[in-house]
Amino acid sequence: MPGHVLVMLVTVGLCIANLVTDGVPRGISHTLAILLPAGAVLATLLVRRVRPALPWWLALGALVVLGANQVAFLVQVDVQGGPTPSGPLVALALPVGYLFLLGAVTTILLPFIRRDGGRLVEAAILALVGAGLVWVTVARPALEDADAPTGELVYSLALFLVLAAIAGMVARCAVAQPAARPAMVYLTVAVLATFLGNVGRVLTIEGPVDAIGAWALLWLLGYGALAAALVHPSSEHLGVPGASRDGTLSTARLTLLGFVLLLNPLLASAQEAFGDGADWMLLLSGTLLLVPLVVVRIAYLARLQASAQVALTHLVSHDELTGLISRRALLVFLDEAIARLSRPDARGLTVLFLDVDGLKATNDRYGHRAGDQLLQTVAGRLAGAIGVDDVAARVGGDEFVVVCEGSPDATRDVVARVRQVVGEPVRLAGVELAAGASIGIVELGPGDAVGVDEVVALADSRMYEDKRHRYGRAHVDRRRRDGPEVTPSPTTGPVPDRSGTAADG
Hints:
- This protein has helices at residues 3-20, 23-47, 54-79, 88-145, 150-176, 181-203, 215-231, 251-273, 280-317, 327-339, 359-366, 368-385, 408-423, 452-471, and strands at 349-356, 391-394, 399-405, 426-428, 431-433, 437-444.
- By secondary structure, it is of the alpha+beta class.
- It has two domains: 3-113 and 177-245; 327-504, Alpha-Beta Plaits (2-Layer Sandwich), CATH 3.30.70.
- The strands form two sheets. A four-stranded antiparallel sheet has the order 2-3-1-6, with helices on both faces.
- A hairpin with a 2-residue loop joins β4 (426-428) and β5.
- It starts with a helix and ends in a 34-residue tail after the last helix.
């Protein structure tokens, strides 16, 4: 029998024993229903490598503290016959136990909040709305009828809201994380049972100690479910959330968030209209919780939009295969670099147009995947050869452009490194391919006023001159973009002829 099933069966059995017995036997069954899940958690932590372990040690602490509280009840009420348990342990055990329990579940939720924060915030908001309605319609009237002090009202409301928010987030994780779903379902049961148990505590606060009756069984089921969550094998996935979820907001969900912001003022107005008086505690605490959560949700959306904008900008400005900047981005950069030549502190500009050798032959012989790897290798080498202020771009199938700012003397080392790295052999899947590239170079000096298209066209033309020099005219593609001769722009004047082909070196 699976361990988690055994834990729940034992818990249910002890709950039944709690219903059909009285006095000391009932107290013993109640105590065992807390301490046995604590033992299951401790045994699992000692036997199995649990990651992360912190939340489960906190859960163990919660069960131990709550178990100690129940032992005090067993001794003082069931054994000694006292009316109610008393003492510092009894006064502190319940809030401290809940603090440990909430800390455990919150720690479990942290990795999921990082991945699916927007949806988890929505779930918490909706759960808070539900808790507020339960408070207004059920809990607050019962506490007021019992003349509960303000401290009890504040404590109960805070507990309701916190438990509800955590229950909503855990339930969301149970839906969105298939790998961890069984453990998350157990955790959802644990938190919901604790919430409903506190509803029962509030409803029976005016009666005798044992008036809570069946409501107490919800706490016991919650403790068993908490232990079963760890014992279940899917708890191994609690520290490894799945892929991030879509965090966009539909119109309907955005409208719902707007309604949530209006709900507290609407409830207060309705209470005033019917003469009950506005619930200032709910109005204050609900506003202090709901408004920041809605703002956080919108902040998640804004961050998502910003990330999408960055991704879109990168997609437009970079070549998907090589990661180098695209032709569009290159032309923008080159235009700005040419404009800087008119400054008094201008240094110069060197443009290299490269046509990589052997791409078609590689594609034909080894497949397009190998051709892609060839281009990626060349692109990586170019990126490593240039300076931090220089750029390399892929402008066509096997064509690259490098732009270096600086005087020809200053950029000569960069040009030499580019020639060297593109000429080194490329190893693909155990096959070493001879590499190389035809290179056309254009150098511009301070004060040169030329157009971007003219510079690129001249570098392209000189690249073909280099190709003819390396392979002979018969091997140069006749369909190259010779076109008409590059003519000066009527507004910029001729392109200065400061450089030749790569072969002129």
